[in-house]
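seq:
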Amino acid sequence: MNAVTSATPVFGTSSDALVTPSMVIALAALAFTVISFWWMNVRRGSLRLHRPHSYAASVDPEDMDINLPLVFHNDGAAPIIIQDLRLRLERPPGEAPQKIGNIVDRPSEGLDAPEPLPMTVLWRGTRPHLRPADGGRQLPAVFPVPGRTAVTVFVEFGNEREPNKPPLNWIGGPCTATVEVKMSHRERWIGLLTFDLHTEIIDDSAYIVWANDPNWRP
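struct:
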């Protein structure tokens, strides 16, 4: 009569135990495979933005455009869908409004400077380059940021002056700028990047490119 050999149990001493070392190894391998597949192909990561070193702008009392070269970085595997963008401009504490452009008049003595900030600047479109003369503006459109990818988008934000509101050319800074994003998998707006936007260096109302650094020299 042949002897029957039973697997050594992992728990307890019964030779009829259901959990054996080979089963533990098989389950561990299956869990590793599932987790690896999720991590490499399904996992949704976080979206990051990087501070722009330059920008283009056109600002007059009634209308303004600000073109920012934004680099979106998705560190996850799944794509992230960008539904909408907006730019929040605020005045840093202790800073007074300044007029920008090539007109140097100031409020009369004893009168406060008009203050258009804080202001939410809407997404007007995208451009192929930072320089406005290098191509036309495309209307805002939903776009994806693929997984493990960085995407550069030249986003143009703009506003028209609202009735009974201060003229827009008093946004001379520096301003505290926050890029806010609406993603398809989130219900609320998310502030992705806050940085100093040096609008105080603008000395012309034409739509041209400026370095976002008051100390930079060509």
